[in-house]
Design brief:
Blueprint: H1 4-22, H2 33-44, H3 53-62, H4 69-78, E1 93-95, E2 101-106, E3 110-113, H5 114-123, E4 130-134, E5 147-151, H6 152-163
Antiparallel strand pairs: 1-2, 2-3, 4-5
Length: about 160
């Protein structure tokens, strides 16, 4: 009798095989909610998430072209269609893991380095083969007086000299 991880794998495969044999739909078709619930229950040992009748009624009502005011009120009260609380608006700033400030410029999630945006706003597009350099070396200081466009090669040489 197999033991350990191998035994669990065999048990897992047997459960999947039993579920697939019980599935009357042909392969390639979308699985039904009941079938997905069976798979979830078999693999995790607990029942999968299933919408309540009220949630099902509310979401099916949202697909209709004309909704009555009371349906709209019920949908709003249920919180359906609201953006997630961690969704940031356009113009939001954060510090990127590279240490530079990034700004959200468009939806859904388009971010741009702030120093590049500041330079382009003041001087126009950054020339090909050039990068924006922070003169004082502080990536958080994006004042226009602190920014300069340099060729990539000159930028690498400058930072190589500073590192030595």
């Amino acid at each position: 009798m197999p033991t350990g991880v191998y035994a669990r794998t065999l048990e897992h495969r047997a459960k999947l095989r039993a579920i697939m044999i019980g599935n009357q739909r042909s392969l390639g078709h979308r699985q039904s909610d009941e079938h997905r619930a069976k798979i979830t229950a078999a693999l995790t040992g607990r029942q999968g998430w299933r919408p309540t009748d009220e949630q099902r009624a509310l979401t099916s009502a949202t697909t209709r072209a004309a909704m009555t005011p009371e349906v709209r009120a019920r949908i709003g009260a249920a919180g359906i269609g609201r953006p997630p609380p961690n969704k940031l608006p356009i113009g939001a700033q954060r510090v990127h893991p590279t240490g530079y400030v990034v700004v959200k410029t468009a939806l859904p999630d388009v971010w741009e380095y702030e120093h590049r945006a500041v330079y382009e706003e003041a001087y126009g597009p950054i020339p090909d083969g050039h990068v924006v350099h922070h003169i004082d070396g502080d990536p958080l200081n994006n004042a226009i007086e602190n920014l300069d466009a340099m060729s990539l090669g000159a930028h690498v040489q400058l930072h190589h000299r500073l590192a030595i």
